[in-house]
Write a structure and sequence with these properties.
With 709 residues, the chain is α+β, with helices and mostly antiparallel strands. It is built from 23 helices and 21 strands. A hairpin with a 2-residue loop joins strand 10 (462-467) and strand 11.
Length: 709
């Protein structure tokens, strides 16, 4: 039905043009001309110069403009009606014949007939006032009046007929396009009228050669208009590219490119065909909404392959891209970077030869600039992706996870939505590394990540590698949904056959811990993470592994408090560290590693009961020596870690002296005095937090850090 309606409209446009041509020929036949020995040069120069003006116009988005009207109105002022009509008809006819391969065949006759009709309408309007002018002996004044009356009527009729014809052939009318055409032609008339009047003054001295004289300023003004037009669009494209260069997301770049390309050509239909990994194209509109899927066409591949703007002046048969467009001409603008194919901007017009050579040049410049910007953004995206993606597993890294955890935690707190955090840990992973080697171990990590990701993506859950053999997921889920997700991942990994080259790794299982923001009353993102970690270790690992466990408050004491000394565990410090770093007043933050020298000798000589008593006394001694807000942890068997916040480095000597004096004064039961070694690791900013524990562990093994005696 839609195609039938389109054909009916097009036939109306065709009929309108037939009527126009017929009317023009009738007018001409009513005003026959006689070629004389004195007039052949006039006809020759006039026809040739008008034809050249038609052949070399200035291309605008919705129209072509030229200064041929200088010659048109020169003949109106200077010669009789028959000469003006026939020279204009012949000049327009020759010009359109020379452009026959670049225009519709019907236009060869339509354009000359249109000019004749518009001129005749102007002459008829002038005939109403001509008797009054002649009666008052206003010979030259009558010429000026004739120029303005014929010119104004010509202007009105020309635009009226053109836009009616365009409406019938294209079935739409753009007020913006019409006003733009009127604006440009009004500007042209400011140059046309003075030059036509100049020609009339020179004619009495130069005769037909006047046409050659006024052709010089016509060519100059045409060149100026062409330059201004090109500069205008080049400046607009350059300005748009400056804006595009500041845009980071592709949708913004595509939208702006759409608008520029549309304004440049005044195309009725515009679509971005985005290249997909499978080689097909996805059609998007200027709002980034999908219009068509799985588009494949040789024209698109040709545009990409040649990296050039391709114009299809007449759409026939296999050249048709989108039948629904009812387009009779296309232009394809490839967006191709150095290493990446982004897609093709496709534009269509409902009439043949809708796009000119200037359109191709300007769109080619735009395509080159946009391709450079897209290429740069693609590189930035790859760098940003590399910064947040773990290279081994392809999952997000823990830094990105922390950012998302903060964001989602705050949103869920504000809106009251569900939020669950899930930790996955591969059981006995160290054993597999020892048996099969790290290469096979890395492959196990990759395959586990792949399985977990396939499940998490289906549920809209963010998954990241948390460290070592641990993975963490966060999403808007109820407790039941999170448990089901954890069970699904656990079962799939348990049933998966891990094969890498000649190795088959059997019995890979995972333990899963879950915590819910509201149900488990998490106070902060770190608290939610700590609760999930507790459920993993105490609810899953300690209960036999290969199971899913949910947080319970009974896990708190077991995980974070050392049973012997009553101090915090290093596990507590590891989870607490991030929240400590969130407060800038805590910096610089100093970590004092206190090592009891000769602890093995004490255990050997006095027994473990006495050794444990020494450790308990050391914990009391440190509590009494340090400030109340200093965090004290049992780090390893015979080591303690004291966290001192927000004091300058110069004060560490005082703290060190106080600790040494406390140990020197204290006499331990059965043992007497105990010597210690003190090492300090300083955290200058939150950026150093990810490597802190590694630095402390290095200092513990070597004791080559800063010594304070």
């Amino acid at each position: 039905m839609r195609m039938v309606k389109a054909k009916a409209w097009y036939r109306m446009g065709y009929l309108f043009e037939v009527v126009l041509i017929t009317a023009g020929l009738i007018v001409l036949l009513q005003h026959p001309f006689h070629l004389t020995a004195n007039s052949w040069l006039l006809y020759l120069f006039g026809t040739a110069l008008m034809a050249l003006s038609v052949v070399f116009p200035v291309t605008l988005p919705s129209m072509l403009i030229s200064l041929e009207l200088v010659f048109t109105f020169y003949f109106v002022m200077t010669y009789d009606i028959a000469t003006a009509l026939w020279v204009n008809f012949l000049g327009e006819l020759v010009g359109t014949l020379l452009l026959a391969h670049k225009s519709r065949k019907m236009a060869i006759f339509t354009n000359p007939a249109l000019k004749v009709i518009c001129l005749m309408a102007g002459y008829l309007a002038y005939s109403l006032v001509e008797p009054v002018l002649l009666a008052n002996n206003m010979e030259y004044g009558s010429k000026v009046v004739k120029l303005f009356i014929v010119g104004i009527v010509f202007f009105v009729f020309n635009h009226l007929i053109i836009h009616v014809n365009l409406f019938l052939r294209q079935r739409h009318f753009s007020i913006r396009t019409g006003l733009n055409a009127v604006m440009w032609e009004s500007f042209i008339y400011l140059a046309v009228f003075p030059l036509a009047m100049l020609g009339d003054l020179l004619e009495r001295h130069l005769g037909a050669y006047t046409l050659l004289v006024i052709a010089v300023p016509v060519a100059a003004v045409t060149s100026v208009i062409r330059t201004v037009s090109h500069l205008q669009w080049s400046n607009r494209v350059n300005y748009a590219c400056i804006q595009l260069s500041m845009a980071k997301d592709l949708s913004t770049i595509y939208q702006k490119t759409f608008h520029i390309a549309h304004d440049l050509t005044d195309a009725r239909q515009v679509m971005l065909l985005k290249k997909l990994p499978d080689g097909s194209y996805q059609g998007l509109d200027d709002r980034d909404e999908v219009l068509v899927e799985n588009v494949r066409h040789e024209l698109l591949e040709r545009a990409i392959r040649e990296r050039n703007v391709i114009s299809v002046p007449k759409v026939k048969g296999s050249l048709e891209l989108f039948p629904d467009w009812e387009a009779r001409s296309y232009i394809l603008v490839p967006l191709v970077g150095k290493t990446e194919v982004f897609g093709v901007i496709c534009m269509g017009k409902p009439h043949s030869f809708g796009f000119k050579q200037d359109h191709q040049k300007q769109l080619g410049f735009l395509a080159n600039q946009v391709s450079i910007i897209l290429d740069r953004n693609h590189i930035y995206e790859e760098l940003e992706r590399a910064a947040i993606i773990n290279q081994l597993t392809g999952l997000y890294n823990y830094q990105y996870f922390y950012e998302q955890l903060d964001c989602q935690f705050q949103q869920a707190k504000t809106t009251g939505e569900d939020l669950c955090l899930i930790i996955f840990d591969i059981d006995y992973f160290k054993k597999y590394n020892d048996i099969y080697g790290h290469i096979v171990g890395d492959e196990v990590l990759r395959q586990v990540a792949m399985i977990a990701k396939s499940v998490c993506v289906q549920h809209g859950v963010l998954l990241a590698r948390y460290g070592g053999e641990e993975f963490v997921a966060i999403g808007r889920m109820t407790m039941t949904q999170a448990y089901e997700l954890g069970e699904e991942v656990r079962r799939k990994i348990q049933d998966h056959q891990f094969v890498y080259q000649e190795h088959t790794v059997k019995n890979i299982t995972i333990s899963v811990g879950i915590a819910h923001l509201q149900e488990h009353d998490a106070l902060s993102p770190s608290d939610l993470l700590e609760k999930a970690d507790q459920s993993l270790y105490w609810g899953a690992k300690e209960m036999g592994r290969n199971r899913v466990a949910v947080y319970s408050s009974e896990f708190d004491q077991r995980l974070f408090v050392d049973a012997l000394t009553g101090l915090h565990t290093i596990h507590y410090l590891r989870r607490k560290l991030r929240s400590l770093c969130e407060n800038q007043t805590h910096f610089p933050m100093h970590f004092l590693l206190v090592d009891i020298l000769g602890m093995r000798t004490i255990n050997d000589q006095y027994g473990f009961e006495v050794g444990n008593r020494v450790l308990i006394d050391v914990s009391y001694l440190l509590k009494n020596t340090m400030r109340g807000d200093d965090l004290i942890c049992r780090y390893m068997d015979d080591e303690f870690l004291v966290v001192v916040k927000g004091i300058p480095e110069c004060d560490l000597g005082i703290i060190s002296k106080r600790i040494h004096e406390a140990f020197a004064k204290h006499s331990f039961h059965h043992v007497g005095h105990v010597a210690i070694d003190l090492t300090v690791v300083t955290l200058g900013s939150a950026d150093e937090e990810p490597v802190l524990l590694e630095r402390i562990d290095t200092a513990r093994r070597s004791y080559s850090g800063k010594q304070i005696v």
